[in-house]
């Protein structure tokens, strides 16, 4: 069609000017990529691996917020456990744990931090504590964490098996290539194994913690939850960052 035969912009139908609807993979990739960027995982930036992982953990305060509520619960629960009846002061243990989370939330609000980040940890801690108080069993304080591990592990595993790795979707959005990485065999392979590794982490937590849950070993369950938390998250996050950066080498200016 010649230039004379093409309709002018003012003569085009509204449907010709409407941008295409975003695909499901694009929407999911954008959501995952934005979450990764907020967490500090942005392969397009110049940052050290240690700095990226430290930021992803929330820095010193983030580490304290992730560890202290659970640690307080374990310590108080253990100290108040009767060796004969194996019963502990559940109200005191959970109350102090929620109290620590509330203090961190208050600090964030005073410092005018994002409301979502401020209340996220407190709500999670309060829901878990409420469930344990409702059932009267200390191990039920860990049910939300077990469910989260099962959900994340399943999501990563399925995404890898169907060829739409969640890691690849997030990285594709961050690197402005959408889902073009699926046409690159090397990228597909790397993203597949990264998703498998993350699924393995979540399922490993379940494999270790579920038997302790059913055995009513509250102190051991809480301790291993902390041990298998940030200490395992940090090295896998570092490996993921390095692998993705290797796929997108920096070009000279």
TrEMBL record:
Residues 1-26 are annotated as: Disordered. Residues 1-15 have a biased composition (Basic and acidic residues). Coiled coil: none annotated. Keywords: Membrane, Transmembrane, Transmembrane helix. The chain crosses the membrane at residues 62-79, 91-110, 117-135, 155-179, 191-214, 226-248. This is DUF3159 domain-containing protein. It comes from Microbacterium imperiale.
